[in-house]
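User: Here's a chain of 375 residues. Predict its fold as tokens.
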Amino acid sequence: MSFSFRRRSAKTAAPKTFVKEWFNAIAFAVVAATLIRWTTVEAFVVPTPSMENTILVGDYLFVSKLHYGTRTTTTPLQIPLTHQKIWGTNIPSYLDWVSLPSYRLPGFSEVKRGDVVVFNVPPVSLNDGVLYPIQLKTYYVKRCVGVPGDVLVINNRELSVNGTMMAHPANMKYSYTVVTDGEITERTLRKFQLDKDDVYLLGKGGGQASVYRMLLTTEQKQEITGTPFVKSIDEIVQVPEQGESNIFPSARFSEWNGDNYGPLTIPRMGMDVVINDSTLALYGQTILLYDDPGKLTIEGRRLLRNGEPLKTYTFRQNYYFMMGDNRHNSLDSRYWGFVPEDHVVGKPLFIWMSLDQDADLLHKVRWNRIFTLID
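Assistant: Prediction complete.
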């Protein structure tokens, strides 16, 4: 018996077309960028002045998600590299046909008092009135001034936590009413390093006078006071027991304001509270909306689970209190409440680019801020 073997002829692979090569390259880049953005670092741009002078409008930040732990997504049916909407449209970038529970992977550290933190701001009112999934809510960046279990008090603008006075942010701004002899020119604003977010025209006074609200550092206030066009400058002071209508938890239940606030205990996981008028006023909405959503109700002075009143409630997660360094121009926890732990995104590391939107082309880039560490 004889055997013969025949070598199979190798099949020649069809050459890739130019279009197919580009498609594969783009697909790989999108997948890689999505994984990096989700698991490690993400770039953000700062649109508001609430963290001045630590972070300026137009600063571009690299934010680490590894520090506090990466969150798994709840919306797998989403266009990669998008947030709430498809670029340049009002079309949602995700489908809620599939909704997964969110988990946080182990991180390098926990959020500490004094950390600058990027988070998803909780209230629907600050998310275009849309009830987005947690990781698609609008991003905010603020400084954590209170961690779970802390007791926070602001007395005449002085912040103390657990009885210890906290240092002011560097180059902190204060609010003033400034009356000038005529309107201030843009050139004058640039001279004193003021931008449009520092100066608000309130109206006209007698004659040619103009009345402004200005946010100034101590040095800027001293410089402006000595100029001929300034007729008067008076600090805007919020007195104790002069409640603000939009204060958290509600002006109906307190006489707190942005400069005189608390005492307020920040909830921590496992903390028990006795249910009464006072605790429901402070924590009721937090419990309903973020701690155990959809499972409890409040009727009058009672917190109900399945129609049964609860005498005490135990918090299921940790919470944080966030404030902007520019405290007189910051919409923060004093006005909308606690940040739940599952809303924490990450820790800003450094500024990789900074653009001054009001400057001319030659001075657009703030070169001195590039690669500045966030502290």
